[in-house]
Amino acid sequence: MDILLIGGLWLDASAWDDVVPELEALGHRAVPVALPGQGDGSASATLDDQVAAVLAAVDAADGTPLVVGHSAACTLAWLAADARPEKVGAVALVGGFPWDDGKLYADLFEITDGVMPFPGWGPFEGPDSADLSDAARTAFAEAAVPVPEAVARGVVHLVDERRFDVPVVVVCPEFTADQAKQWIDAGDVPELSRAEHVDLVDLDSGHWPMFTRPAELARLLAGAITR
């Protein structure tokens, strides 16, 4: 099966370089999605541009792909399910949850000169980054791509309730599956509270398992297909 990989904030498609061969070894075609404004030098990209890139990858996929979103890009994966509920076979959410309709995509940190740069490691101290070495932190910060303001402050639009029939697997790295279940049951994640098929799986890592646990992450994504 085709597995489409969408990186979160500040990541370009190379973030999946260690995961791709692991998925291919398991018999799947892995397709990192290049997001406009995150790696192509365009600070004028919009959230709609990123959604269009994801949908183009969905439309080009063989059969019904697994669409994987990491962190903020969990919303992008969910927007794909909303726009192509008949084409998306399943959605995997890594270290995050989808926003509901009307929310700003990722208005989380300060905007400077039209972009949202990586804010440094202060906001991510603790479980998020505990498994990253000093060298890995430095490499991440140096490679981080500032996110265009029109992406970060783009408005999420969800229109097709058939998205709730698309199976979802939540990969829980810096939080546990039990915690995620509590948040969903409490209504803190409205979109997943309404989804018909949600599985929760634990992964012992920080917020960026594509760097620290690529083989384990690949196995969980492959397992999401069999679910």
From TrEMBL:
Domain of life: Bacteria
UniProt keyword Repeat, yes or no: no
InterPro entries (UniProt xref): AB_hydrolase_1, AB_hydrolase_fold
The keyword Hydrolase appears for this protein: yes
Entry keywords, A to Z: Hydrolase
UniProt-recorded name of the protein: Alpha/beta fold hydrolase
Any one Gene Ontology molecular-function term assigned to this protein's record: hydrolase activity
One Pfam family recorded for the sequence: Abhydrolase_6
SUPFAM superfamilies: alpha/beta-Hydrolases
Span of the signal peptide: none
Domain AB hydrolase-1: 3-219
